[in-house]
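Let's practice the habit of predicting before peeking. Look at the sequence and jot down your guess about where helices and strands might fall. Then scroll down.
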Amino acid sequence: MTREITWVFVLCAAFFGVWLAVLPWGFLNFYLRPVYLGLFLIAAYHGGRWLFVAIGIGCTIAAEIWRTWRPPASQSVQLMFPLADGTYYVAHGGNSKLLNHHFRNLSQKYALDIVKLNAYGDSNSRRDTNADYSSLIYNEAVFCPCAGTVTSAIDGFPDLALGQRDPKNPAGNHVLISAEGTDIYIGFAHLKNGTVSVKAGEKVCAGQSIGRVGNSGNTTLPHLHIHAKRGGNPGNMLDGVGVPMRFAGQWLARNSVVRARSVSASS
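Done guessing? Here is the structure:
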């Protein structure tokens, strides 16, 4: 085999590994990822025998390790996952601009955008209105991930039509909570109009419902935005410095999947 063909296979393997790790598969079909991997390995085997199978596997593993790189545990805040009864997918999240469009924003550096997968591994195909997402994440209850005190609770912004944005009110309907025993605030954005069920100054506990997933603010489709920050104005979720989050000890990034069960409030 010529050197040129060898380098073609090496570059294709590297590209495929990165592509498999960073492409937002929840908007295509998350469960097709292993199918594409299998097809690539078959092609690699027939094109270059076991050497290129090994290269393909190695590049994919390297890309997956990079995708799920974990920040130091001492810098993370430990939280309960804020959604229940379904399979949830991280559309944006991670410690890289390639995985997380929030990463350039100081306060939202480690933010997550969470959607829900159906049984086929799809999060949004063939949907035209917010109501079409009711079988997925729209109108789902959002649960407080920790004990704390509400420092801001804003309601009254409309849920926008799909594809529309409200850049003047980027967080839309939102809740900001000061996590008990820390100097960290947890913010939830894009909640459904009329569903915010807590108010500023209220004590909350882990597992308590605080609102429902909507499509308000600077967003194009129903999803839950969550991020943690330190410092800034206690009433403003868009300032301060971002803090990494772990959910039940797990660091989440794009293409992470969480299978969540029902939760109940604890005192």
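How did you do? The mean pLDDT is 87.
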